[in-house]
Amino acid sequence: MRKLAMFDSVSLDGFFTSPDGDMSWLHASEPNPEWEAFVAGNAGGNGALVFGRVTYQMMAGWWPTPAAAKMAPQVAEGMNAMPKYVVSRTLTEATWSNTTLLKGDLATEIRALKASPGPDLVILGSGSLVGQLTELDLIDEYQVVVYPIIIGSGRSLFAGVTTKRRLVRTEERAFGNGNVFLRYERKS
Predict the structure, then answer these.
(1) What single string gives the DSSP state of each residue in 85-106?
(2) Which among 147, 133, 148 has a CA at the least distance from the CA of 50?
(3) pLDDT digit string, tens, across residues 93-120
(4) What angle do CA 27, 171, 130 make, to 5 degrees?
(5) pLDDT value of position 45
(6) pTM of the model
(7) What backbone torsions phi and psi does residue 95 show, to the nearest 5 degrees?
(8) What is the 8-class DSSP label of residue 17?
(9) What percentage of the chain carries pLDDT values higher than 90?
């Protein structure tokens, strides 16, 4: 069985976007070689990515471009090469390289994906998808980067979750730019 993890970033006050969807604060941290190496290592191509439609369209509009290849060549190469799955009821096609469109019932599609052969899966961004899959108890691991910024209000990754989920911290790592990476697994 493939493992399904989520990787997302939140402000210190727990929001992944501002109320209007702005995430520019993610790019305001100080340059830090250790952080940049961590990001490049995560995009190394050893897994498969899962997106909701909004995040997919944002990523597909950036990573295949020459500007992305120039700005972050390692990350762009990994993002473009990795297998990708996009969950959407409204998209009719997914044109980014190595992308499969999942249009059926969310729980059924994700259970089938986890049961199929292949690398482990990581939901990247996709806040509403994270909330829905948390509620369905289909996420095995939570990876969160806390940014040292307070944005005051915004959207929670876990909006709509009604059942408490107990987690066990398995890793933490602080970076010189103030970002803190946290990894949790579901408590058995």
Answers:
(1) EEE-SS-S---STTEEEE-S-H
(2) 133
(3) 999 999 999 999 999 999 999 999 999 9
(4) 60
(5) 63
(6) 0.91
(7) -100, -10
(8) B
(9) 72
Q: What pLDDT, in 10s, does the model give residues 22-46? A: 888 888 777 788 988 888 777 666 7
With contact defined as beta carbons under 8 Å apart, do 83 and 102 qualify?
A: no
Q: Per the structure block, which two tokens stand in for 98?
A: 């190595």
Kindly give the residue spans of alpha helices, DSSP state H, lying in the chain: 33-42, 53-60, 66-71, 73-81, 106-115, 127-135
Q: How far apart are CA 71 and CA 67, in angstroms?
A: 6
Strand partners, 20: none
Q: What is the largest CA-CA distance in the chain?
A: 45
Compute the radius of gyration of the chain from its Cα atoms: 16
Q: What is the pLDDT of residue 142?
A: 96
Which residues, in sequence order, are bridge partners of residue 143? 7, 183
Residue 41: predicted pLDDT: 77
The SS3 call for residue 21 is coil
**Cα–Cα dist 137/20, whole Å:** 28
Mean pLDDT of the chain: 92
Residue 56, amino acid:
Y
Which 3-state string (H, E, C) describes 54-66?
Answer: HHHHHHHCCCCCH
